[in-house]
Amino acid sequence: MKNNNFNKKEQVEVMALFGYEMTPCQPLSFKRRGQAGETEVTELIGTRIKFAGNVAIHFFDVVAGKRKYLLAFNSQDLSWYLSAA
Q1: Are 1 and 82 in contact (CB under 8 A)?
Q2: Per-residue model confidence as pLDDT tens digits over 33-84
Q3: pLDDT digits (tens, 9 = 90+) for 27-45
Q4: Which whole-number Å values give the CA distances from 17 to 2, 27, 61, in the listed order?
Q5: Sheet strand arrangement including 39-40
Q6: How many Cα atoms sit within 13 Å of 21 on the Cβ side?
Q7: Distances from the Cα of 75 to the Cαs of 7, 38, 69, 72, 85, in angstroms?
Q8: Element (H or E) spanning 66, and its range?
């Protein structure tokens, strides 16, 4: 999942747990526009942060079912984006 091509990103709603033990943020599920239900995150593979000026973008490599996804959280406007890996 080293390809960070976020040209095909999709804004999503994310249910996340903030401030839990050693992980400051952990996505639990996400919902795509037009999707009836939520997709449960079954595994958090890794996290990283990229700084762009005064904005921190937090990246989460996750598994939902049998598919890998990349979720990104923009700390400035508090938006989440999804990209299939």
Answers
A1: no
A2: 998 999 999 999 999 999 989 999 999 999 999 999 999 999 999 999 998 6
A3: 999 999 998 999 999 999 9
A4: 25, 6, 15
A5: 39-40, 23-31, 10-20, 79-84, 67-74, 55-64, 43-52
A6: 1
A7: 19, 23, 19, 10, 22
A8: none
